[in-house]
Structure formats: structure tokens, C-alpha cells
Specification:
Blueprint (H helix, E strand, L loop, with lengths): L7 H27 L4 H17 L8 E4 L7 E3 L14 E6 L7 E2 L1 H7 L5 E8 L9 E4 L7 E6 L6 E6 L12 E4 L7 E6 L8 E7 L17 E7 L7 E7 L5 E6 L23 E6 L2 E6 L4 E6 L3 E2 L13 E4 L5 E2 L12 E2 L7 E2 L12 E3 L6 E2 L12 E3 L6 E2 L8 H5 L3 E5 L2 E6 L5 E3 L6 E2 L12 E4 L5 E2 L12 E4 L5 E2 L12 E4 L5 E2 L12 E4 L6 E2 L21 E2 L12 E3 L6 E2 L12 E4 L30 E9 L6 E9 L4 E9 L12 E11 L10 E3 L12 E3 L2
Parallel strand pairs: 1-5, 17-19, 18-20, 19-21, 20-22, 22-24, 23-25, 24-26, 28-30, 29-31, 30-32, 31-33, 32-34, 33-35, 35-37, 36-38, 38-39, 39-41, 40-42, 42-45, 45-46
Antiparallel strand pairs: 1-2, 3-4, 3-5, 6-7, 7-8, 9-10, 10-11, 12-13, 13-14, 15-16, 16-17, 27-28, 43-44, 47-48
Helix pairs in contact: 1-2
Length: about 725
């Protein structure tokens, strides 16, 4: 326990003074006894001894006066005595202090250990609760030459408890080498044995690691290698081979690549059992644009694939024995399970014609160490390289549009990654051991894998960068506590509705550079109440983007938007008012179907798209934006209009919310039957942008009070429906 004593120098000086006085008293006492002084002097000496006994115990030790602060009287204690037990009803002992203001802490144990050089007063401190200390917080790390300091904090009050940490003592060096500097083919590296004591950076046995050989292996110093052949897989006319040699005296292993044999012979032309005169391999199977070659001298196999697809189990009996594989530049797809559990496959070169690698394609290829995925690849499905336990070097296609879940699960690359969000280049591939409560996909990411955040229930707020182009499936599946989204992707494509049915989601913010709101982005987010567009660059809102966002009461659509997909606000039954800006030129059907609380609306035109005239087909009426599906609060409204012909009309029954009373149309042509039978409306305002009103645009059965304001083509600026 650390003790902090204020005024230590003063106490030391006072101790020395008392000590000198005591010596003088003893000296004069002996002198007076020796000289047989008179009784008066003896009485003085006796009084002096009595005074000394009042300040010291019977053994001449200094006295600690304890102030218990528990209602009892002070008492005296010496460091030679047992530590006293002090209690106070209803309180917990909280230590002793050298002052009554409880600023300088000490302890009975510390006083016994270090001793005292004068009489002391100590004061007991009490607390109304028992401290609950968590883990130690290290303030000063101990070293080999100095002590450290750590502290406990009570979780119930502001109490602190400090403790010194002893010096770490002698170095304890690891027996395992630590690579301090990796060697390369041009520079030496360095290794050493490190001290294992926390905070110590001492190392010994610093040793140079020689430059690597051209094949990337390194040669230890100390002796000439006596190499023996461990394995050889001869090259074929299509694929490089290799051989592995090991030093008999040490663990040095060298792998050498054997170049492809120069040849113009097409192995597909060989008969079964016929040997290639160039590479020495014999054809043992020729099926469906695939050839299996065998080297009898080294018992090695090579599979060759032509055509457009690598099929599974063509050479099923030999799968686990095949060492090499050749894919021609006609291959476009590696089918599901094609190379699954090919445990002898050492390496493979993927041609720049492959577009798709299907599920489990290379699952369990335990010898694969490196794979280069060409830029032609656009899709990699689930677990394509999973459980390739030695796979540590992967380069990713720059044309990739979709990557499945668990593609690299169980690889050495995956196991070597730290916990958190894992990236391979610009691809977000997986989350390892959980994510943060407030997290962000890093800027520069282009692709997000299937199930990337799946099951991350701790995730509360996520930020998506502007660079993301493609989202996989079920990216946020199981994120049950997700409450906020900062969406910055400029023009991303989603495999499914990205945040569908996230009922915990309450807030969404679109960044200033966003151009497209993907289809179904927030479909089924029933608690989504706030949607904010920071910028003015959005041009498209995809179909069903806010479908069933029932808590959404209002939204400001940016005046940069030109296209709104179908059912965008369908079943947003909390929506009461909305303005579709004049910038919009295309509106999907049923965008307001089920909006049973909608009271007023402003639209740039009536129908599907801007610019439709009386000579065009599909002159959809006002009910088009409310759809044909019935819902509670929807009024069946039969409307007549010109559909696929301008020579005769057709009719459709739409369901317009009974709550809707006011409509403003800012532009376009209000054509035949536009508001026919819309009896529930009490106000329709015609804006200056409207150029014409067709026959039967409004019910002839109802009376209208027309304004006196006219425009050049005699179209009234506005009129009111009177109930």
C-alpha cells in the first residue's frame, strides 16, 4: 500500500530534536546518580523519567494515538502490538490518515513495516458503503529500475486506492525468436530474443536474417546446406510444376518452380493411355472438354479444363490426388464444388476470362497458399475459398460486383487478421469477433459482402461511405438494435432491401453527394421517424424505398429528384403532407397507396410522367399515384381516362385516402378525367405551370367557384371545389 505523508521533512527534524533531548536527559540522569546528588536533584531526575514514560511505552517505543471517530475515546498503539480492530455500527472502515481532513493516507500495516521516528496521531475514516473496486488502472508501469503505481476506483463514490508496483526484476527472455525486421530479396532482416516482462523492450541475441532467395525463401547462416528432395511435381505442357527440397541439418526448406514445358501438342488430341512426348504425362481420361494427365514416374496428376465452365466431379475418383490444374482462357465459370476438398492441389492460375466463382468452388484446398483473382471476375459466391487453411496471399478482382459470405473463412489470411471489420483491398469481406456499437465502413470500400454485419446485435449506428457501389444480401440481418444510419453511398446497387424490417431504426441521414436512394432501402422500418437529405444531388428514389415506414409523418423531397419509383411511400400511414418538387418528371404507380392520414399534397403533374398531352396514350388520372389495392381509409374511386388508345376511354378503380382534402398541381396538362369522381377533395389549386385542362377533368356534377384571374390561354389559375 502506498502511503502519502505531507510534511515529511518537518517530521524528521522534529524526531531528531526529540531524540537529542532524550539523550541529554539520560546523560544528566546518569551524571546526577554518579555524583550522589541531593534528594532534590533526584526528584527532578525522577520527574524527568516520568515525563519520558508519558511519551514512550515501557520499551522506549514511540506511540501512535488513534482517533477512532466512532464515538469512543482515543487510544494508544505501538507498532510492536497487534493491529487494532476498530468498528463503527452502520459504517465501513475506510482507512487511517495522518490528518483530520483525510488528505494524507497511511495504514497500520505500513507503519509496522516502515517504523516511526516520533509519536503520531492517526484518524480513522469511515464510509456509509463498502467500496466496490473494479480492476486496477496502471498509472506508471514498473520497469527493471523503478517502481510503478496503480489505482483502484470505487464504482459507488469517488474513493481511490493506490498501490505501488514492485520493480520487474531481472529480464526474462523468450526462448522463441522474434522477427524484428523481415528480410527481402535485396535486404537482410533481423531477429532477436525479447524480454517477456510487460513494458520491457530489452532484447538479446540479435541475429541477422540473410536476404531471401529469388523464390522468396530465406537461407539461415552457419553451415552449407545438404539438400534432399522431399517432393517433385513435374511441369506439364500447360502448367508449371515444382519441387521441394529440405536441408538434412536444419529446417531450411526451398521450393523451386519448374517452368511449363514448351509444346504445341493439344492434350485433348491424345488417346487414353497415350503419353505426351514432351512433358511425359499420359492421358488417362478425356471427358466433356476436360483431360486428366498422369505422370507415372512421380505419381502426380494434372487436370485440364477447356470449354466455358469447370464442372464438378468429372474426375471424382482422383479429386484428392490431383496436384495441378489448368484452366484454358475460354473458361467463364467455376461451378459449385468444382475443386472442393482437392487436398493435393498446390497452386492454380485463374485466366482473365472467368466471370463467376460459385459456392464452395475451392473449399478445403488445404495446400493452396496464394490465389490471384483476375479482374474479369464479377461474382464470388459463399465459401468459395473457405477452409483453405494455408491460403494467405489473395489479390482481388477490381471488377467485382458481389461477394458471398464466408468466402475466406478458415483461411490463414482470415486467422491472421485482427478482430473487427476485415477488408481485402476495397472489399469488406467479414466481421471478426464483433464490431463497435458505433461503427463505420471505411472510406474507399467498393463492395460489401453478404451477411457482413449479420447477427451484430450490438451495432447501434452505422456510417456508410460514399465509395460503396455494391451491397450483398442480408448485410444487416439480425442487427436488432440498429437505430441510426448515415448513408453516403453515391450510387450503390443492393442485392436486396438493405435495411428491410429494421424495426429499431429511427433516424436516417443521406449525405450531400448521394445521387440515388436504392430500391426498398428502408422498407418495413416501422419506427423510422426522421429522414434528412443533407445535399441536393439526389436524382432518383428507388421503388418501395420507404414502404411501410408508418411512423414517418413528413419528409422533404429534394428539388434535385427527377424520378420516384413505384410504391415509394406506400403504407406510410403517418404521412400527413408532402410536396413532390417540380424537378420530378417520372412517378411510379401507387407511391401513396395506403397513406391513410394524408391531408394535402403538391404534385408537379397528374399521372405517370411530365409532358403528356391529349394526343398521347396512357393519360393516367389523379388516382394513379394511390394504386388499386384497397386499405382501411381508402375510398374506392372509379376514374375514366385514355389508356392504350386515344379513341376510346378505359376505367380503373383507385383507392384514394378519405383524409385527403387539398391538392396542388404545379404544372403539366390536366387531361381528360384527371379528377373525375374525386368527391372527397375540397380544394384543388392549379399552379402557373399548368398549360391546359381537358374535358371532364373535374366532375360536372359539382359546382365550382372560379377565380377571376385569367392567363393567356384562358386557363384559370385556380379553382375551388365546394362541398
Amino acid at each position: 500500500m502506498i502511503s502519502i505523508i505531507c510534511g515529511g521533512k518537518i517530521m524528521k527534524k522534529l524526531g531528531r530534536a526529540i531524540f537529542l533531548v532524550a539523550l541529554m536527559l539520560i546523560f544528566f540522569t546518569v551524571l546526577f546518580v554518579a555524583c550522589n546528588t541531593n534528594s532534590t536533584d533526584n526528584n527532578q531526575v525522577q520527574n524527568g523519567n516520568q515525563q519520558s514514560d508519558a511519551n514512550n511505552d515501557t520499551n522506549g517505543q514511540f506511540i501512535v494515538t488513534v482517533h477512532p471517530n466512532n464515538g469512543n475515546s482515543t487510544f494508544k498503539w505501538t507498532i510492536a502490538s497487534d493491529i487494532p480492530s476498530i468498528e463503527r455500527e452502520g459504517y465501513y472502515f475506510d482507512g487511517i490518515y495522518l490528518d483530520s481532513t483525510f488528505m494524507s493516507a497511511t495504514s497500520f500495516e505500513s507503519l509496522k513495516k516502515t517504523g516511526i521516528k516520533s509519536n503520531l496521531d492517526v484518524y480513522v475514516k469511515w464510509t456509509s458503503h463498502k467500496h466496490e473496486f473494479g480492476s486496477w488502472h496502471i498509472l506508471i508501469k514498473p520497469t527493471h529500475i523503478s517502481e510503478g503505481l496503480r489505482v483502484w476506483y470505487c464504482s459507488l463514490c469517488d474513493a481511490e486506492k493506490y498501490e505501488t508496483m514492485p520493480k520487474v526484476g531481472e529480464h526474462v527472455f523468450s526462448l522463441v525468436w522474434t522477427i524484428d525486421i523481415e528480410s527481402t530479396t535485396t535486404t537482410d532482416g533481423e531477429k532477436s530474443h525479447h524480454c517477456t516482462i510487460l513494458g520491457c523492450t530489452e532484447r538479446k541475441d540479435i541475429t541477422t536474417i540473410p536476404k531471401k532467395d529469388s523464390d522468396g525463401s530465406s537461407t539461415p547462416v552457419g553451415h552449407e546446406h545438404n539438400m534432399v528432395l522431399l517432393e517433385k511435381v513435374p511441369a506439364t505442357c500447360t502448367v508449371e510444376g515444382y519441387e521441394i527440397n529440405k536441408c538434412e541439418e536444419c529446417d531450411y526448406v526451398k521450393r523451386t518452380t519448374l517452368p511449363v514445358v514448351s509444346n504445341t501438342i493439344d492434350h485433348r488430341e491424345l488417346l487414353a493411355g497415350e503419353k505426351c512426348t514432351k512433358c511425359g504425362y499420359t492421358s488417362i481420361s478425356n471427358l466433356r472438354d476436360s483431360v486428366l494427365m498422369y505422370n507415372t514416374s512421380y505419381d502426380t496428376y494434372c487436370a485440364e479444363y477447356y470449354g466455358t465452365i469447370v464442372e464438378k466431379d468429372i474426375f471424382e475418383y482422383y479429386n484428392q490426388r490431383i496436384n495441378l490444374a489448368y484452366l484454358s482462357d475460354t473458361i467463364e465459370t467455376i461451378a459449385r464444388d468444382s475443386f472442393k476438398d482437392w487436398i493435393s492441389l498446390d497452386h492454380i492460375i485463374l485466366p482473365n476470362t472467368i466471370r463467376k466463382i460459385e459456392e464452395n468452388a475451392f473449399y478445403g484446398c488445404s495446400l493452396l497458399n496464394a490465389v490471384s483473382i483476375p479482374d474479369s471476375v464479377e461474382e464470388i459466391e459463399e465459401s468459395a475459398f473457405a477452409q483453405c487453411i494455408n491460403l494467405e496471399k489473395i489479390s482481388m478482382s477490381q471488377s467485382l460486383k458481389h461477394i458471398g459470405k464466408n468466402v475466406l473463412w478458415g483461411t490463414k489470411w482470415f486467422e491472421d487478421q485482427p478482430a473487427g471489420l476485415l477488408y481485402l483491398g476495397n472489399v469488406a469481406v467479414a466481421v471478426k469477433q464483433g464490431c463497435l456499437k458505433v461503427d463505420a465502413i471505411k472510406e474507399g470500400t467498393r463492395i460489401v459482402a453478404d451477411d457482413f454485419f449479420a447477427g451484430q446485435s450490438e451495432l447501434s449506428i452505422i456510417t456508410i461511405p460514399s465509395t460503396v457501389l455494391h451491397f450483398g444480401e442480408k448485410v444487416f440481418d439480425g442487427c436488432s438494435n440498429l437505430s441510426g444510419v448515415f448513408y453516403n453511398a453515391i450510387n450503390a446497387e443492393c442485392k436486396d432491401n438493405l435495411f428491410e424490417n429494421k424495426t429499431s431504426l429511427e433516424h436516417a441521414v443521406f449525405g450531400k453527394n448521394v445521387e440515388k436512394v436504392p430500391e426498398g432501402l428502408f422498407a418495413g422500418c416501422t419506427q423510422l421517424a426522421d429522414v434528412i437529405f443533407v445535399g441536393n444531388n439526389v436524382t432518383e428514389i428507388g421503388a418501395s424505398a420507404f414502404f411501410k415506414c408508418s411512423k414517418l409523418a413528413a419528409i422533404i423531397v429534394p428539388d434535385s429528384v427527377t424520378s420516384i419509383g413505384e410504391s415509394v411511400f406506400e403504407c406510410c400511414n403517418g404521412l400527413t403532407s408532402i410536396t413532390i418538387p417540380d424537378s420530378v418528371t417520372s412517378i411510379g404507380s401507387s407511391i401513396f397507396s395506403g397513406c391513410s392520414s394524408l391531408e394535402n399534397i403538391t404534385i408537379p403533374f397528374v399521372g405517370e410522367k411530365a409532358g403528356v398531352t391529349s394526343s398521347d396514350t396512357y393519360q393516367y388520372p389523379f388516382g394513379y399515384i394511390f394504386g388499386t389495392s384497397s386499405y382501411t381509409g381508402g375510398v374506392a374511386t372509379k376514374q375514366y381516362y385514355y389508356g392504350n388508345s386515344t379513341s376510346s376511354t378505359t376505367s380503373t378503380t383507385y383507392y384514394i385516402p378519405s383524409s385527403l382534402k387539398s391538392v396542388t398541381v404545379t404544372g403539366g396538362n390536366i387531361l381528360y378525367g384527371a379528377f373525375y369522381n374525386c368527391a372527397g377533395l375540397t380544394s384543388v389549386t392549379i399552379g402557373n405551370g399548368v398549360t391546359s385542362i381537358g374535358n371532364y377533368a373535374i366532375n360536372s356534377e359539382r359546382g365550382f367557384r372560379k377565380t377571376q384571374q385569367k392567363i393567356s390561354n384562358n386557363i384559370e389559375n385556380s379553382f375551388q371545389m365546394i362541398a
